[in-house]
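Sequence only, no structure available. Ideas?
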Amino acid sequence: MRYFNYLSKENIESTFFKAPESFDKNTPRDILSYALGATLYMPGTRETIASDIVSKKNSGLASTVFCLEDSIGDSEVHAAEQNIITQVTKINLALSHQEIDFADLPLIFIRVRNPEQILRLTEEMGACAKIITGFIFPKFTSASYKYFEIIKSLNAQVTGPFYGMPIIESPEVIYRESRVKELMEIKQLIDSFQDLVLNVRIGATDFSGLFGIRRGPDVTIYDIMVIRDCISDIVNIFGRIESDYVVSGPVWEYFANVERVLKPQLRRSPFEEFHDNSGCNGTKIRSQLLNKYVDGLIREVILDKENGIIGKTIIHPSHIIPVQALYVVGHEEYLDAVSIIKNSDGLQGVVKSHYTNKMNEIKPHYRWAQKILLRAKNYGVFNEQHNFISLLTEDTYV
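Reply:
I predicted one. Tokens follow.
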């Protein structure tokens, strides 16, 4: 898989200073953990999962989740399990018949309801389970050790490798009186299985439900104070340098126009100034983003990044390209990162940036620079004067 692989060679060269690199489930964990991008959830009952993936219906899709939890009814679990087994078998058959290349296969995860479901699914999938990258553990707590024990045992066999991704969304974490203790105990648990943890994910919808809250399309999750405070503590504990975990952001729920109360969250000027070689109109792109309520998503992803969060759960294909476009590293920040790493030999403490608009302090910015270079591997680096608008087209939201 390679981000923006739907672009022509000419478009890649004109847009990117450094093109995205390829990755797959066998890519080293430290690189792969930054590669999930916009992770599209699909209900386990959907009967077109395999055909959608093989036909590349969703342009730019790089990671997806087949969901057996909240997206399906309790009475649908068995049918959804059987459907997922069928869909995985079809995808594997398509690979063997060369209807799709392994290089074009998105990272595939399954969100399960309990640890036993992992064993049941992998047993029935047999050799086809090899196309699965990992499993997602909902409502993860400090008592959920069995999930990782099962993943570890499967990886000891020939079936894997599999990763696990815990979703932090339990009452013990959102309630203030138990939060820090529970988070520290969760961290102690996953530290013992660190090589199996690809991401730590945040379940803000479940958190909100415990308070009868649902954020509106005019605000981001960071405007909901009780959720913002909890996210702050999650990042504080799992995002530290010594922790080495990638924390992924919560889902954005809106994908169609609804009544707007506040002003749109996209400035006009960057779009008005944008026209690509094909005559693509930036103003029209902005209008389409607003009509699909993607402007709120864009603002939330920007705030995710500013808070050290990379990766976004999505529930609609229209979110794929804008989210992943926002993860591309800017030309200026890439040159800053390269300079910081290059000058980390202890001979100097601060250097002027290539753009001569800031000072780069080597020690405080070193870990930031490392993360920028990891993002650059997966998502690439824009050419000078290019930004995320360069990857949007007028027909993206038709």
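The mean pLDDT is 91.
Hope that gets you unstuck.
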